[in-house]
Amino acid sequence: MLIVQKYGGSSVADKSRLLNAASRVAEEYKNGNSVVVVVSAQGDTTDDLIKAAGDINPKASERELDMLLSTGEQQAASLMAMALNGMGLPAVSLNAWQMGILTSDSYGKAKIEKIASDRIKRELSDGNIVIAAGFQGINRKGDITTLGRGGSDTTAVALAAALNADKCEIYTDVEGVFTADPRHVENAVKLDNISYDEMLDYTTMGAAVLHNRSVEMAKKHDVKISVRSSFSDSEGTYVCGEKSFRLVSGIASDSNVLLVTVKGISDIKKECAVFALLAENDISVDIVMSRRDSGKLRFTVSSKDMAKTERALAGIDYEINDCLAKISVVGTGLETNPGVIASVYKALEEENVDMELMTTSEIKISVLIDKNDKDRLVKALHKKFFE
User: Fold this and answer.
1) 93 pairs with which residues across the strands?
2) Dihedral of CA 330/333/337/339: which sign?
3) How far apart are CA 218 and CA 209, in angstroms?
4) For FRET with 44, which of 53, 89, 149, 386 sits at 20 to 30 Å CA-CA?
């Protein structure tokens, strides 16, 4: 059996945690399985590297940032291989170019386009445990790229798909996918399973359990993911193609959102020009509301894209509100249960929370509210749908 395991930064944060993860890998190998292990940078390494870059040059290019940030995963991969070697097991660490992980040219949020997996297969056939540096790839120029925060999840799923692995396990510091963030909602419940579509919306809307691109890739290649804790033997949560019969699967929140209001927009031609500028600057847009009667176009972008948004809209009359949070109710049961929106409105009324915008789809309802009301509304919605 071929197993792909991924260990997040908290799971390998220090010596004891890294050795704990290595013990799990060793157990699978000793059971006769072939194992590929994807690792993230240890603990706060990535944040520390970003800070170091800012101290040297606050305007460092995205190319050089990727060159720097990729070293965190390479360090963790080498240390994991050393730990396994110290246990008497054959292990070899590989970075992106050695594994043939080819990506798009976009620095900071590149997409995996192809994996030339010959080297990995050769190492596995030689009886080695392969330790893969996650989060990184190589573009057509031969430059190192990174896949965005949480990108090691995507590395793991991509490798599982390319190698036709029997299992893809994502190890983290929580026991699976919960109905809300258990750090903030005391009665949050762990889900046994969740569909790809629900998980994709859940992650996109702010749930920091899996990288959203990893879920996209898992759905595309039908890779069943097991999200588990590296600190317990819990079965975790399976992310797969099976739809649940739940009305709601989870409540997600995202404070990293900006509401942009562009003024003087009176027709679709001007709206098109705004979104063309955003596209040229590689800025993704989420909620959109057009009010041509008032000449306003409103939309949300990620707070990490604030500087790029300001550059893209230079010379245009606009304003940015960075004091909002997005709360989302996610579930496949939403499309057949019209009472869900009424319940969301009732929670807003009961908690006396003003709503800036709302957007809906078949499996999610999202509202923009003041950041100060975020935790209170999440708890109220969780109580309404799960308690």
Assistant:
1) 131
2) negative
3) 14
4) 89
